[in-house]
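Q: For a teaching session next week I want to show students how multiple molecules come together into a single three-dimensional assembly. I've collected the sequence lines for a complex. Could you give me the predicted structure tokens for the whole thing so I can convert them for display?
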Amino acid sequence: MDFLRPTTWAEALEARAAFPGAVAIAGGTDVMVGINFGRLRPASLLDLTRVAGLQEWGTEDGAVRLGAGVSYARVIGELGDRLPGLAMAARTIGSPQIRNRGTVAGNLATASPAGDAHPALLAADAEVEVASVRGTRRMPVRDFYTGVKRTALAPDELIAAVSVVPPSGPQQFSKIGTRNAMVVSVAAFGLALHPDRRAVGTGIGSAAPTPRRAPAAEEFLAGELTSAGLWESRAELPEATAARFGELVAAAAAPIDDVRGTARYRVHALSVIARRALTWAWADYRNDPAKEI
Amino acid sequence: MRLTCTVNGASQQVDDVWEGESLLYVLRERMGLPGSKNACEQGECGSCTVYLDGLPVCACLVAAGQAEGRQVGTVEGLAGAAALSPVQQAFLDAGAVQCGFCTPGLLVATHDLLTRSGRPSDPEIREALAGNLCRCTGYEKILDAVRLAAERMSEPGAHR
Ligand SMILES: Cc1cc2nc3c(=O)[nH]c(=O)nc-3n(C[C@H](O)[C@H](O)[C@H](O)COP(=O)(O)OP(=O)(O)OC[C@H]3O[C@@H](n4cnc5c(N)ncnc54)[C@H](O)[C@@H]3O)c2cc1C
Ligand code: FES
Ligand code: FES
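A: Of course. Below is the structure for the complete assembly, covering every listed component.
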């Protein structure tokens, strides 16, 4: 095995192209489990923790550009106000030790349907920036997931960053698991209200082969909020609207039975957490009339 | 490969490190520092918790080469020359140690918590220690130990 340690992004991309058998490693919280248990024996490890600039975040065209090497702990500590949905999801991931190392980019590349960053990124319309020696391209996060643990990354590409526009409205994240710390989600849900464009964003986790949105639920809710003038009045949200939203979110799922839960349970749980997330988000929206739209 | 890093303030160099090896393996098997424990090798139990550049991490999930040139702090580095650290002493005094397997990781995680936050609330303590499993104590004595250490460390003139 080789241990490759590029210190610049150009070197990292060259190494990615020159060593097709290499496995990239950032926080190592997925990769090292595989190696420790003998499930992963890469020809080489491509360590990204020394790549200058990759551990930074900044703002670009109004969006937060989160470098691939930024840990969950830093998303929580430094970006809780600008990326509330992602920070909420990050707070539920693993334990303090895991959050000190694990990265959003690692979660994306692993592309587990149960990865907790995905619902928040989907709801917020995040963009993934990937690069190779051939160049850089960006795609909406929904196009990044192509199958169970499969992504749009070409073999010579690395994730450079994730871009998320700070929200104009409230965001929420909710996950169901067996306990509070260190659980793989049985079902997860991310919600973003976008009052500036009168739109709703959703993300479903652990309930389909890939993380996915619930477009019918988004359209339904945005339509209800608009036709009833609720974006402007910030009046109470009818219970029936919240319940219907939960049902439509659940209808977008295509879960399986597995050791953590049955498909039926997941669908039911999703309808409940989606309704709750909406109720919380709407309460935030009502309590924050200062935020003009 | 060769690995050079600083462990508990002293420079360490070891050779013939396998590239897929964890920092935990290097510490225990190559550097003679078996304080950090190996219980799960998958980040679940926290008994391998060490400082890496000042942040508590699971040493079993750090690839050895990622520690090159970095500062590592293990449980062996907590005690002073003459006395245990207040965190260690509090764990003994509160009866928070039974088989002791989880203790090194809990000591590092507690040390980190009390360095950042002088008098943490109970929810803060639970959150900070959520990544450390103990199969013996039922956690109550561990919480007592953390509160005791926090109290002693916040006394005027107390050392850390
Ligand atoms: C105890 C424990 C608890 C956990 N709990 C949760 C949880 O609650 N929720 C959750 O979602 N996940 C959880 N995880 C899984 C894991 O922590 C996350 O998936 C994390 O985001 C992985 O990030 P990393 O930086 O550690 O990735 P690594 O392990 O370094 O890499 C993961 C994958 O991403 C690739 N990769 C990394 N960076 C890049 C890049 N820049 N470009 C291209 N490919 C890249 C690697 O090659 C590898 O395939 C847990 C893991 C452990 C060990
Ligand atoms: S041995 Fe590292 S977390 Fe259990
Ligand atoms: S004292 Fe035995 S595992 Fe904690």
